Amino acid sequence: MATLSTLQEKVKKALLPDITAFGTTDITAYLNEGVNRIAAGIAMYEGVLSPPLPELHKTAKVNTVVIADATTIAFVDGGASADTITDSDSAFVTSGFAAGMLIHVSGSLNNDESYHSLATVAAGTITLVSTDELTAESAGEEVTIKSPCVALPSDYGRGLFYVSSGSQDKRIQVFDSFHKLLRKYPLLDEDGDVAVVAVKGDLLYYQPMPTTAEPLTLHYYRVPTEMSASDSTPDGVPSHLHERLLVNYAAKEILGMVEQSTKGKTLRSEKFEEKFQKAMGDLLAFIGPEDKEPIYYESDAEDGYY
Known about the structure:
The protein has helices at about 5-15, 25-40, 180-185, 240-260, 265-285; strands spanning about 55-65, 65-70, 75, 85, 100-105, 115-120, 125-130, 145, 150, 155-165, 170-175, 195-200, 205, 215-220. By secondary structure, the chain is of the alpha+beta class. It folds into 2 domains: about 5-55 and about 225-285, no CATH class; about 60-150 and about 175-215.
């Protein structure tokens, strides 16, 4: 098992005599970049993406986002400024609302069955994007605000492959693309227990939308922890491949940058590129192919997919 200090020294030796332009901080950055790139997936032969690193498997829980039948919600026409929704109970953040989300409003006298996109979220105030408009309305009605999405865990990296519902005590179907979810639920406005989910950016979209917060357990691969201390080790990378993968990655990237700024790509950077690709091949052989979920196609079946 190689430590950060060991890897730094190996990279310096690989770069000889061209090391004056790159200090320890630069080398550390490239080593961490290598770990992150490998964890995120690198295109190999015929565009095949390298599988996730098993050691980075993570389980975390999220809740669907909803404030139900609240009489503390008011709608503010901001005039020249952005419109806002306020909550005297200050429950927006604790309920899971976040910037970038889409929300659906029901139960309002003046803004019923409307959709809005969120620019910012504070405990007691949601600010909409500048193009969205509200009709002013005081608090008092039993307003429900739902979202068809929730923020993914902050350490989410890739490969959401299993989701289960605590309240339903069953597995939830994971679509491999957000567009597939939209084909089945084009308006994102269905009410009911969560049946399907899909990842889009840093958000997890789900349909239907439950009337109360539904706990979901997610299985995915997290972002690796970066190396900083001299005795830290590459997170998730098999120990017998630490040096071959990361020293060669850092060396090829650094030499590639130096050589392109002077005389173009040379045999030195190509040599380390070849060694890195060989090490990636050994990584794939060690991990094995990634298990694939069944691909669901549109059909005339009751649920629309089989």
